[in-house]
Amino acid sequence: METTLYNIKGEKAGTVTLPENIFGLSWNADLVHQVVIGMQSNARMGNAHTKDRGEVRGGGKKPWAQKGTGRARHGSSRSPIWKGGGVTHGPSNETNFKKSISQQMRQKALLVVLSRKFKDGEVLFVDSLEMAEPKAKNAKVVLSALAKDFAILGSKKKNAALIALPSAHRATMKSFANFGNLDVVEVRNLNPVSVLSAKFLIIADPAAAFETLNKKKVASAKKNTAAKVVVEKAEKPAKAKKKVAKARN
């Protein structure tokens, strides 16, 4: 599989040969659903808490006698039907939302999501995104250049793109930090939830990114084609004429 490689100016700089074990997997909805739900559940803090009738202060004394008053019988003023009483079936901070997800399931789900994103045309490969200095102005120029072929990058207000860098680059990460419609992460920190949350996935330095993804157990277990990045170079007219002359001879 081959796809277009862009440069920082939004121009086509060459082609990228994609490894089949990362971008050629079939869609597995059940696996992705199970992993995403599990990751979202594990991220829940469980801070919401209400007090039931046994936790509310007071209410130890019987409000009035059981018989003889003409009123309904009550044993505590902290009953849920009383004002100031406990809450019935409310949230508790002791609830455990954790779900078990194996490492292989999580890694396989990531590769399945990457394959689906690529098939839907929502993955961009850029040769390099390293900024010389942390400036949002320069980052905006890059986004505007890439938005020529992918207009949603410039118009979508939320979750427009997720930029994956081969390694943490302080100037680049700070340059894109002020844009509310995109996030910047390292390739090694990609997960199914973050990739699915964004419309586009922008991968910088594909060769280094593929090397990191191939280190995952699920990816390394399968035979993969070597990833190649071919950068187009303009050939000089003189050299081209010499080649034609040699071919005729």
Walkthrough of the structure:
This protein has 249 residues and is of the alpha/beta class. It folds into two domains: 173 residues, Ribosomal protein L4/L1 (Ribosomal Protein L4, Chain: A, 3-Layer(aba) Sandwich), CATH 3.40.1370; 52 residues, no CATH class. The protein has ten helices and seven strands. It has a seven-stranded mixed β-sheet with strand order 5-4-6-3-1-2-7. A hairpin with a 5-residue loop joins strand 1 and strand 2. The longest helix is centred in the middle third of the chain and has 17 residues. It is elongated and about 95 Å long.
Q: What is the subunit organization of this protein?
A: single chain
Overall geometry: elongated
- CATH topology type of the largest domain: Ribosomal Protein L4, Chain: A
**CATH A-level architecture of the largest domain:** 3-Layer(aba) Sandwich
Which structural class fits the helix and strand makeup?
alpha/beta
Which secondary structure elements does this structure contain, and how are they paired or packed?
Layout: E1 2-6, E2 12-17, H1 20-23, H2 29-42, H3 103-119, E3 123-126, H4 136-146, H5 152-155, E4 161-165, H6 170-175, E5 182-186, H7 192-197, E6 200-204, H8 206-213, H9 217-220, E7 228-231, H10 237-248
Parallel strand pairs: 1-3, 3-6, 4-5, 4-6
Antiparallel strand pairs: 1-2, 2-7
